[in-house]
Amino acid sequence: MLEYIPYGKTGYFNQLVTDFLAEHPQIRPFYTYSPVHPDFAAAIKARQNFDTPRAALVAALEAQYASLAPTKAVQDNITALLQPTTFTVCTAHQPNIFTGYLYFAYKILQTIKLCTTLKQQFPQHNFVPVYYMGSEDADLEELGSIYIDGKTLTWNTSQQGAVGRMHPEGLEAMLADVKKAIGYAPHADELMELLRKAYLGHKNIQEATLYLVDALFGRYGLVVLVPDSPALKRLYLPVIKDELFNQVSYGIVNDTLAKLTEHYKMQANPREINLFYLQDGMRERIVRDGDQWKVLHTSLTFTAASLEAELEAHPERFSPNVILRGMFQETILPNLAFIGGGGEIAYWLELQQLFAHYKVPFPILLLRNSLLLTDELSRQRMQKLGINVNELFKRTEDIVNDYVKQHTNASLVLKDEYAAVEQLFDALEAKARSIDVTLVATTGSERTKALKSIGKLEHKFLRAEKKKFAWQTDQIRQLKNKLFPAGSLQERKENLLPWYAAEGPAFFDQVLAAIDPVTDQFTIMDIPAK
Predict the structure, then answer these.
(1) Are 475 and 394 spatial neighbours (Cβ–Cβ below 8 Å)?
(2) How far apart are CA 158 and CA 284, in angstroms?
(3) Which residues lie across from 289 on neighbouring strands?
C-alpha cells in the first residue's frame, strides 16, 4: 500500500527545496531543467555535443572492477559506456560505514528506476545507473556511525584523512554489535557474511564499499565509480590547473551566491582555491601565498614549477571540494541527471554559471525520493487509535493534543469564555473612556491579564484530560518514536540492515516498485508481513 504527501506539507523540508520543486520564479534561474517535468531529450542533445572521455572512463572502471566478479548486467553497462548513444544517471554519496542511512538505498534505487523509465521513452539509447562514491570525504564523525535498534554504533579508530582510504581495522567489534542488533532475522546470516567479506576482506573502506554496493545492487546493473583515481583525475587536470593558478571558481560562484542568499540560507561557500591536497592519512586545504602554494597544517610548500610537476606526476593528490566535485563528475560521465537530497540540490544551485564558464553541460537536478516505511504493528496501532499516517508528520504533542480534543467529552477549548471576556472588557473600556481616558490603558492591561488567565486554565484543563487518555497518548508517542526516531525522518536516522535482514533482496525490489523517479511527493510505504 502506498500513500503520498507533498514535500511541503511534511514539515521536514526547507523553503529552498519546496520552492525548487514548485519552480518558484526567485529560484528557477539557477537550474536548467524542470525538476518535475524535465526535458530529457534536451539533456541528451546537450550531452551529445560534449566530448565525454568515454575510453578513459571505461578503462578506469574496468580497473576498479578487476578484483570483483561483476554481474553480466554491470559488465554490459560498463562496455556500453563506450558508445555515444549511452548516457548515465548518477547519484553520489560518501562511503558511510555499513551504508549509513536508509536514504542511501533510496537514492541508488531511484537512479536505477529512472534508467529503466528512460529506456522505455528512448529505446534507441542506453542508460546506465551510476553510484559516484564520495570516498575523499574526511568527516569520520558523520561516516563512521550507524543507528540501529535504537542505538548508535560507532567505529572507534584514530585514523585521519579521507575515509575511503582508511583501513577497516577495528571493525570486528562493530560487526559483533550489528549481529546482536539484527538477531536471528531470516536473512541475518547471509547479511553478516556479506558484511564480513566486504569490510574484513578489503584493504580500505572505498574498496569495501565498492564490494558491498556491487553485491547489493549489481543485479540491477548499477555501476560504482570511485573517483579517487589517477586516471580519472588526469581527465580533470585543465580545471584543477585553472583553479590553482587563476582561482576562477571563487568569483563565479560568489556572484551566484550573492543572488541566492537574498532569499535562502546557503551552506556551501567557495574558497579562493577549492581543492584539497590528499594523501593517506591526510586531506588538507591548499592555499596560495604570493608565489607559493601551501598545504595547511603541514610543511608542504610548492612553487609554480613544482606544483605543475606534482600535478603531472600525481593528479590523484588533488581532491575537489563541494564546489568543484559536481563538475568533475559531469566531466568524466556522459550524465543526464543527478539525483540528490535537499542539501545536495542546494549546493548544485550555486554552480550553473561555473558549468557554463567551462562549457560543461549542467544536468537535470532531481530531488531524491523520500520514503516512510510502515510495518504491520504500526498500522494496527494507527487503526486502533483512529489516526492516519499523514497526521504523524506533526509534532508529537500536537498529535496528542489534537487526539484528546477530538475524543474528550469535556469542552477543552474555551472559545466561548474568551469571547465573553472580550465582550466584558469592550464594555469596561467604553465605560473607562467615558469616565477618564487615561483609564483605557489600565483596562487594556487588565484585559490581557484576564485572557492569559483563561489560557492557563485551558492548558491545565487539557493536561488534566490527557491523564484520562494515558494509554492512547502513550501509544501515540511510541508510534511517533518508532516511525520518526529521535524526532527525525526515519530515512535520515535508521540503517537499512534490519530491513534487509528481515526481507532479504526482496526489500530492494519492494522499494524499487514504490519509487517514482520524478516526483514532488513524499511516499509512505507499507512493508507487508511475511
Answers:
(1) no
(2) 17
(3) 292
The amino acid sitting at 49 is N
Residue-level pLDDT at 530: 46
Structure confidence at residue 298 (pLDDT): 95
| Closest of 274, 276, 218 to residue 246, by C-alpha | 274
Query: Considering the chain, what is the average pLDDT of its residues?
Result: 92
Contact predicate 110/368, CB 8 Å: yes
Strands 86-93 and 126-133: parallel
pLDDT of residue 404: 74
- In the prediction, which pLDDT does 108 show? 98
3-state secondary structure of 54: helix
CA distance 78 to 57: 9
pTM of the model: 0.89
CA distances from 264 to 22, 150, 159, 241, 252 (A): 15, 34, 36, 32, 18
Query: 163 with 137: CB under 8 angstroms?
Result: yes
E-strand ranges in 263-312 read 275-279, 282-289, 292-295, 301-302
Give the amino acid at 87.
F
Instruction: Tell me the C-alpha distance between 217 and 328, whole Å.
Output: 24
User: What is the Cα–Cα distance from 348 to 363, expressed in whole angstroms?
Assistant: 10
8 Å CB contact between 298 and 287: no
**Angle, to 10 degrees, between the axis of helix 72-80 and the axis of helix 54-64?**
160
How far apart are alpha carbons 38 and 360 in whole angstroms? 18
Sign of CA dihedral 223, 226, 227, 230: negative
Output DSSP code: residue 31.
-
Record the cell numbers describing residue 284, joined without a space. 588538507
Tell me which residues of the chain have a pLDDT lower than 50: 530
- What is the chain's length? 530
Q: What share of the chain is helix, strand, coil (3-state, %, to 5)?
A: 55, 15, 30
**Of 516, 515, 363, 364, which is closest to residue 35 (Cα–Cα)?**
364
